[in-house]
Amino acid sequence: MSARRVLLVDDEDDIRLVARASLERLAGWEVLAASSGREGIALAKAERPDAIVLDVMMPGLDGPGTLVELRADTATADIPVVFLTAKVQAAERRRLEELGAAGVVAKPFDPMTLAGELSSAFGWS
Amino acid sequence: LVVTAEEVLRRLHRFQVVMVAFVLLLASAGVVTYRTATERAEDTERTLVDIEQLRGEVLSAETSVRGYVLTGLDDFLAPYRAAVPRMRALEAEVAGALSAADRARLDQIESTFQEWRSDFAELVLADVRAGRHEQAVARISTGAGKERIDAIRREAATLTVDVRDEDADRQRLADALGWTSVALTLIAIVALVLVTRRMRRRVDRDVTQPLAELRSVAERFGSGDMSARMYRSDGVAEVRDLATAFNGMADRIQRMIVDLRAVDRLKSEFVSVVSHELRTPLTSIRGSLGLLASGAMGELPPDAAEMLHIATSNTDRLVRLINDILDLKRIESGNEALEIRPVRVGEVFRQAASAVHGAAATAGVTLDVETPDIAVDGDPDRLVQAITNLLGNAIKFSDPGTTVHLDAETRAHQVVLRVRDQGRGIPPDMLETVFERFQQVDASDAREKGGTGLGLAIVRTIAQRHGGRVEVSSEVGAGSCFSIVLPASSRVPAPAAAGPASGSGLVVLVEDDADLRRVVETMLGRRGIEVVAAATAEEAIRRCRAELPDVLVLDVRLAEGDGYEVVQALRQDDRLRVLPTIVYTVVDLTPEQRDRLRLGETIFVSKGQRTDEALEQEVIDLLTRVRPSG
């Protein structure tokens, strides 16, 4: 099985680094990183990753906005998206899932289990 | 012109006093007039009788003189002699009641009578006494005596008529006075009615109507229309003052509400900002530390690994603390509405138990979870959170080898959810404050146990927002019992929908009743669960050793041997010592008996209270928990 290719979109450099390290070193995935919604959309179109991990609160185009644009473009409409959010209220979680997210992972995440959480959200065994 | 209600009332009062005085005056005038008229009428009657008597005396005197002349008998002269004093007495009596003109007539009668006496009667009597009979008769025949007597008669008749006329005049005057009083009284009454009606209209216009409008304005304001104000400017001064005061109050309340909403918005924003701004750096810290500790960045020296462990666990503590603070704020503020619906307590217990499953295993603490078939009205997520907090707490303060019990019971209209531990207990003086924030029995607990000091405060807030309360009892050294008391649900919950609809795995079913065995076997089989059945203790032990099932379903009473025997044997086997077990029995078990039936996670289900479907759900849930990969 070839390595999973995941696009990680988060405006925080440190979080991108940690998540990338966790997914690459512990799960052996290939990680593409973008620091804004716009950059993420461009990268998603160009690279067609297997899945996208999207931060909710970002300056400019935020996570939900990015998801809406991804869904609107046939090239990226089918790529599953999981949100990464610091807001963990049930209502917020439901709102994100209603937007079409495959799942929601709470920040701070545990780097040891991040790959597992994402896998089960994406439906990867 | 500002008119006050007080002024209006004062005027009304003044008017009333004047009218009452007026009516009283009229009434007394009427009474006086009537009484005077009555007295006068009596006086007049007496006067008329006296005048008649006077006339009678004159006639008697004349007759008496005539009789003496005819007979010469002295006896006949008695009336004549008595006439003068009698007339004097009568005249004295009558004179006071007469007018001046009538008194003159009376005097005329008197003087005419005296003339008659001196110029006629005495002369006639002297003639008779002297035997001059013819001379006496001749004197009578001249008619001079008769003339005077007739004059007296005329005067008396005129006097009578005069007195009657005067009396009639007085009577007419009295009548006129009486009717005048009646008319004036009627006028007074009509005036009173008219003025009262005018006053009433005025009170209605200037007091009642503005007050009614002010009331409706206040009601609109009270029901949320912040712009409601009293705009009418008529009415008495008091009502206008009240309206001004109300408008001022409404303005202030409106400003306060605007301010409060702003504060509320700021608070929500603050919570959101804290939530994001604190978690973002923590995410990097926690992630970096986790990666380092995992060895993904290379092997670390033991000292460094220990330092890293301290940093990691304290980061976790900080994360928990932030989560708990935000949770508490959110639940307390009511910003997050509870999603109240009928909830099965058993389902809440199952979810909470599975959340602390790992912690219990790490602490070497056994969880004894009952899953009663009771429903409450609640937000399932919040109830699970509350029970999870209580279970986590109980596990934290339990020694390895002890048990934490989770059960529920129904009291009158209430459901009590109970978490009992066999830990060190809580001193009596701390019992009242354990639910307060940052109150821990031992100051070192926060460090050693990793608690935030907010868990129980969250439990209490959740209970209160469900219309319930929390209770705690404890015995130092013997353990504590925390209860959440909730109102019982009046509705029937939807069939247990949570949890997977089907499961997979291997179950050993130990049941000596062949029918029941077949029912459960079929039911579980339909859900894709493989069932190996056993009817006796010996068979059960053999099957378990051979199959190494995922879950054991065990009846206590068996045809041969019993459940205790099975558990005792399986405890000897390392592979089966922690086998998840459902004890399914009609027997009411004591805590000691339960302890003797425990293997791994052990759930006790009473046959009497539960349906077979409930058992099925328990098996599926337990399988889901022990085989997370599904």
Kindly describe this structure:
The complex is a heterodimer of chains A (125) and B (630). Chain A is α/β, with parallel strands linked by helices and 125 residues long. Chain A contains 5 helices and 5 strands, in the order E-H-E-H-E-H-E-H-E-H. Chain A has helices at residues 13-27, 37-47, 63-72, 90-98, 114-122; strands at 5-9, 30-34, 51-55, 81-85, 103-106. A 5-stranded parallel sheet of chain A has the order 2-1-3-4-5, with helices on both faces. In chain A, strand 4, helix 4 and strand 5 (103-106) form a beta-alpha-beta unit. In chain B, the strands form 2 sheets. Chain B has a 10-stranded mixed sheet. By secondary structure, chain B is an alpha/beta fold. In chain B, helix 1 packs antiparallel against helix 2 (78-95), helix 5 packs parallel to helix 6 (237-294) and helix 6 packs antiparallel against helix 7. Chain B is 63% helix and 11% strand. Chain B is rod-shaped and about 190 Å long. The interface between A and B is medium-sized, with 23 and 24 residues.
Outline the fold blueprint:
The complex is a heterodimer of chains A (125) and B (630).
Chain A: E1 5-9, H1 13-27, E2 30-34, H2 37-47, E3 51-55, H3 63-72, E4 81-85, H4 90-98, E5 103-106, H5 114-122
Parallel strand pairs in A: 1-2, 1-3, 3-4, 4-5
Chain B: H1 5-71, H2 78-95, H3 100-129, H4 133-141, H5 144-222, H6 237-294, H7 302-333, E1 341-344, H8 345-363, E2 366-370, E3 375-378, H9 380-396, E4 403-411, E5 414-420, H10 445-449, H11 455-465, E6 469-475, E7 479-487, E8 505-510, H12 514-526, E9 529-534, H13 537-547, E10 551-554, H14 563-571, E11 581-585, H15 591-596, E12 602-606, H16 612-626
Parallel strand pairs in B: 2-4, 2-12, 8-9, 8-10, 10-11, 11-12
Antiparallel strand pairs in B: 1-3, 4-5, 5-7, 6-7
